[in-house]
Design goal:
Helix 2 runs antiparallel to helix 3. The protein is about 65% helix and about 0% strand. The model has no long low-confidence stretch (mean pLDDT about 80). The N and C termini lie far apart (about 80 Å). About 0% of the residues are buried. The protein has three helices and no strands. The protein is rod-shaped, with a radius of gyration of 31 Å. By secondary structure, it is mainly alpha-helical.
């Protein structure tokens, strides 16, 4: 009958050792983010693409200065 408490204590100590080792080897850095899917533009790229298109349209004369400035303000969120 004395073997059962001893076995329980051994399991408990083993569990404590396991948890201590897992906690001590754990890093605090989050896992790296997954890269965006192929063909998916990043938000910054989308915005610069919109600005680039707007600048190209202005350079070709498709839009005037007032419309260019108005759309640039809209893109900048002002």
């Amino acid at each position: 009958m004395t073997a059962i408490p001893t076995r329980g204590i051994a399991v408990g100590i083993g569990l404590l050792v396991y948890v201590a080792i897992r906690l001590s080897t754990r890093t605090n850095t989050p896992p790296p983010a997954a890269p965006p899917a192929a063909g998916t533009p990043t938000p910054g790229a989308e915005m610069s693409s919109a600005r680039r298109i707007l600048e190209e349209r202005y350079a070709r004369g498709e839009i005037d200065t007032d419309e260019f400035n108005e759309r640039m303000r809209a893109l900048n969120g002002a």
